[in-house]
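Table S4 entry, Glycine C-acetyltransferase.
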Amino acid sequence: MKIPAIISGINFEEASFKNFENIDGYDMYARAGIFNEYLNFLDERGHLNYRMEAISGCGPEMEVLLPGRSIPQTMVGLVSNDYLGLTQHPKVKAAAIEAVQQYGTGAGASPAIGGHFNFHQRLEEKIARFFKRDSAILYTTGYTANSATFQCLLQKEDIAILDMAVHASVFEGCQLTNIKRFPHNNLEMLELVLKQTRGKYRNRMVIIDGVYSQDGDLAPLDKILELTKSYGAYLAIDDAHGTGVIGRTGRGVLELYNLFDQVDLITGTFSKTFAHVGGYIVGNPELIRFLKFQSRQHLFSATSSPAAAGITKAIELVDEEPHWQSQLWDNIEYFKKGLVELGFDVGTTQSAIIPVKIGDPGKTGETGRLLLEYGVYSNPIIYPAVSKNDARIRMSLMATHTRQQLDKTLNAFADVNNKIGITKQR
């Protein structure tokens, strides 16, 4: 049955997920009902390529069960942030298996009351030393690391000064405090906010990403730090997408600018370069100890499973096997050059995140659908993840992608462009 394009005043042709967050007069069941109609509308057009079932592990090639099909299809995988390919590294797997055999499958308690094991302690020490600092705290997810930490540290007397492009977890973590946003990487506006807020709040914390997750561009960390400190504010950086990728030894944007000891908080995740799941905060020893006893999501959540011992090995491999980072950059440069030569707009990316900017949400969804037909699994990104006219196909490159896989993707983009016209006329 064909779903009508307009239901209860919402034009499905122009709608996004945000339209259904809070509909006046609709209780939770009614809101869920109309949202399901919208999902069905997208599904009929082949534009609902979310939550597709993968049969194999994340990697440069994946077995994926496409909507409406019963047999998995082999796809070039461009959706995993496993930048160095360490989720499939035999030494990482062996470390996780050995720990499960020794400790079992779960920790069984929160860290304060019996769930803090020696593999957790080693991991805290390892990630702190990786960033040339003394102390770290673990969380069960990278999302929680941000949301829980900023909830704990910033209250109604304080203010968070946020780059508008920071991760959703940062915005959630700052719901209990005051917020000022500044346009992405706009130093002039950041300075204006710092001037306007001086002397009005107990704590002022500027929060940025190192590598931004949608455009793949970098923060000008040196200039942001100089501004922040000159106005007496604190600085936190989430470099989830830069760690393992940016810097001579993969220490991220902090290494690029050699500012390890200048930033107040370093936040990140183990779900990308470090091949598992979980999050961390690195910082001043007293501040980290405070979080261990005051941050509720850390204090009252069960700790990560013994398989997290694989993370420690992954951290070591960043230094022991640097060729993975070199191989990743070979792939980044090759693939980006190929897209640009085909006429595509890849924006200002300087990382392993490669967007193909299209603009029109409908054309972006159709591009995603056609790429799947060509055996390319990528992420169409539309509002509210990006602004309404900045829809794109977002891809994450891995060290383990082959040239054949990248060429297959470039050929697919060329054919899709011939069909629906993605590139702008010059």
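The mean pLDDT is 94.
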